[in-house]
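Archive entry. Fields below.
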Amino acid sequence: MNNAVLNSRVASDPVSYDDSDSPQLIKLRGVVKSYNDGALTVMDHLDLDMHAHERLVIIGPSGSGKSSLLRVMMGLEGIQEGTIDFLGTQYITGTRNKPQKLDPRLQRQIGMVFQHYTLFPHLSVLGNLMLAPTKVHGWTKAQATERATQLLARLGLESKLHAYPSQLSGGQKQRVAIARALMLEPKLMLFDEVTSALDPEMVVEVQNVMLKLAEQKMAMIIVTHDMHFARHIATRVVFCANGKIVEQGPPEQIFTNPKEARTREFLEKVVIFD
Amino acid sequence: MNVNFSIVLEYWPVLLRGLGMTVAITMTCALVGSLAGFILSLARTSGNRMLSYPASLYVEFFRGTPLLIQLFWVFFCFPIVLGLSVAPIVSVCIALILYMAAITCETFRGALKSISSDQYDACTALGLSAGVRVTYVIFPQALLRAIPPLLSNVISLFKESALISSVGIADLMFVGQNLSNSTARPIEFLTAVALIYFVVAFPLTRLVGWVERRMLRRFS
Amino acid sequence: MEYQLDFAFLSGSAPDLLEGLWVTVRLAIAANAMGLTLGFALCLMAMSHWALVRWPAQMFIEFFRCTPALLQIIWFFYCLPFLFEVYIDPIPMGILALGLNLTAFNAEAYRAGVQAVPRDHLDASIALGLRPWQRTIYVVLPQALRSAMPVLMTNGISILQQSALVAIVAVGDLMYVGKDIATQNYRPLETYTLVALIYFLLSLPIARLAHVIERRQDAVVER
Ligand SMILES: Nc1ncnc2c1ncn2[C@@H]1O[C@H](COP(=O)(O)OP(=O)(O)OP(=O)(O)O)[C@@H](O)[C@H]1O
Ligand SMILES: [Mg+2]
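PREDICTED_STRUCTURE:
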């Protein structure tokens, strides 16, 4: 595969880095997480800052704790030490390794999309989208239907409103999953290898949706193994290994001129340089 | 010896009445038993050992002993233990309900287990409360997945209910045996009774297969 | 009314109970030997390409699976001698009835095992140039047996329990002896409790083993 082909896969132009002094969205301080009673440390006193309108792409070797980082931020898993703030409010503290229940008002501002779709198979597309807004946040059915219809139309899924997940292609499922996470208008979206399980032609349709979100200045943290997409969408690339951030910076710098040997080594393995 | 099935037709209404009893008892015990089984499965899967251990012991005991002895136990021993007389029909219903609860408990437990952790993650990511999660995501899926095996449980109960004939309840089995003795025509009557059981149970097993395939399509 | 529990009288009946237990164990073992072997043969027949072989096998399976075991046993004891004008001793007759019942259920278990073998494995063995019988012996069978194992064991336990039904046609198994003792001594509570416990203790180890095997297989599949 040459790069001309790879580049043409993403429809829109690279989104430029927006350097406005927007508020601080996420702040991690000294986050420690380990599995198997400390035998395996996946986050080793991690610090990370992120402002609204930023788009972080996290790269790193398999098993370096990228998924764990997103899962911790979503409250799916607990941490041992450290704190995490969202818009200046501390919402996760490391006291135990158990997941902490997030405040619903804060929780709704973060959306997450998983690698394996995780749509609810017994609910229609509309049912999947409406569940949280109507059952948790007290929206009326009409409100939820209206927003769901709008969202699905924007993602090119208006004809699938009443379909069940099993009747959709992988790309369609993943777009529905994105729509479901967008229902409550989150301020931050987390994507964990959302195109890894997809066929190549479906990868593009999902990536295009993410680029559209980028144009609308949605803050995102994206874990991906697709370095070309990473370069396209990122405003900042974070390279993690062994539970630590080894290097971070704008995509041009990380991909063309990495400072750390460890980064260069990783990129040489996974990217074909120009 | 000559076999002549026309005699079965003469006693057709009697056999049908027996079938009516079998079906009525099966349906009653299936309904009450599955409800009990569901509650039992919640106890068995709960983290609380005070609940899960007794539930496990119950299930293992009822699955580890012959239904016939459970039936005899309830029939002959319940009145002694409780110190009051219990109508035979009530006794056999209690025995079948206890048995059905044990086998459906396992069915529901399997269905609960088959829901992947991804589904729980998605619920958390969407901020669903525990109540919403159970009511709208976990329970409907568990129930849908449990439908085919539950139907199989009902078919089992339908067949096993033949045992109640041994304590004198006039179900299909009892009526058939009586007729075969009184007319001295075992081949005709016992075969006819077998066919009646088959004609009810066989389509139900096909239905199970059909529902199962539909579920597979929905959940794949 | 205050009921005095008294298990002591049962010690006098111990020899009878042991004899009944021995009959039950023989019934269960022989029926399982039949079910495991004939069940496999029946499964092969039921999956045959020839309708003339397949149809009778499937009919056999469905008929035994869709009628009460009690009825099957009674039918064997009351109708078989008339129909074929043969006399068979009660215990072999019990084994025959229970064994054929188990054959039908095990055939289904084997079939499910064969169907659970992933299509890819067959494709791969074809691509590797294995002959049809080699595919069956080296690829399909080992996997099918493995996945059928827990169900075969569960079926084996349930035939142990179904064997109690022969008491109704007066075969002197554990259940029958128990019933006898209970009526003779007017002590159903103690007797039936003990008999139930014996059945439970017989099946518990096998049930546990089946459970362990199943769990191990689940763990393998998840990788
Ligand atoms: N629940 C868990 N229990 C024990 N170990 C776990 C658990 N979840 C993850 N791990 C381990 O933690 C490490 C980091 O996992 P994580 O999924 O975060 O890696 P990743 O960077 O996302 O890798 P990949 O690129 O393969 O997705 C891995 O070695 C993994 O085996
Ligand atoms: Mg990962």
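CURATOR_NOTE: Chain B is about 80% helix and 0% strand.
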